[in-house]
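Supplementary Text 2. Reproducibility record for the structural model of the 321-residue chain.

All settings were left at their defaults, and a single model was retained for analysis rather than an ensemble. We include the record here because the model underlies the residue-level annotations in Supplementary Table 4.
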Amino acid sequence: MHWRCRSGSLIAALAAAACVGSSHQEPVRVVIPTGATFRSAALALADSHVIAWPTFFRVYASMSHRDRAIRPGTYLLYPGIGWSATLEALTHGRGLLHVMTIPEGWDLTEIAPLLGRTIGADSDSVAAAVRDSTLRRALADPAATLEGYLFPATYSFPDGTPPRVAVALMTHEFERAWNPAWNARCEALGFSRHDAVTLASIIEKEARLPEERAVISAVYHNRLRLHMPLQADPTVQYALGHHVERMYYRDLAVESPYNTYKHPGLPPGPIGSPGAASLEAAVTPADVPYLFFVAAPDGHHEFRTTLAEHDQAKNAIRGHR
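Retained model, structure tokens:
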């Protein structure tokens, strides 16, 4: 009789905890790793204050036969919503956040498929989102797409996020990263912001060492000032539409406004998403006279002022390969 009374009290307590009402607190993120045990999941929920009494929560889940059906992932959950609602979220993936990281320098051919896979959207709807005219007008982006304005960062999208909402969030991150002081620098350089983003995207592709960004920027600014073609290999890669390990003369002949070997000045728009450091370098070039640079096998660049010096640097690098 005494045990039955205690057992009944336990069941009543579990039922009460399971049915706790919704919370007015801010939602919290809870990560349930792939392969996590229900015990570790319960502890993670308790650490985030989504539930109390993780041991009893495990008993409740076991009694309802849902302790082996949880889905891994990053969740956005409200503390105090009750055990039943919490288990419902974990077993049906409700409140799941879909996390996506855009590395610096990625272009739309890499970003768009990743976005589609992350939020479960078809390629046509993603393509429409990255061409959205309202977003482009807000950014003063004269190009046909939002190339360059989907800021490289890690994003978390709730279930059901439409592509346009996700893309708008990425362009908002770009606006947050853009330093208003850079507007004056653009004006002094005779650049529009679109010009700066375009140059920054080239710098992002070229630079391997952070300290070289401003010097690479200076080379391109010097060439622009002297009306020399930029001759930037990454723009040819972009024009080709695919990556090539080694550039050949036939590649340099590709007909495209993005081919800066054939067309002087900046290309029509960015060739990828630059990070904040490359954006800053684009508008604050180093005060150096260099007009040429060549990459060494270890990733650093040799910078030179004359073509003869540049040829010597290339030959020296080739001799050490």
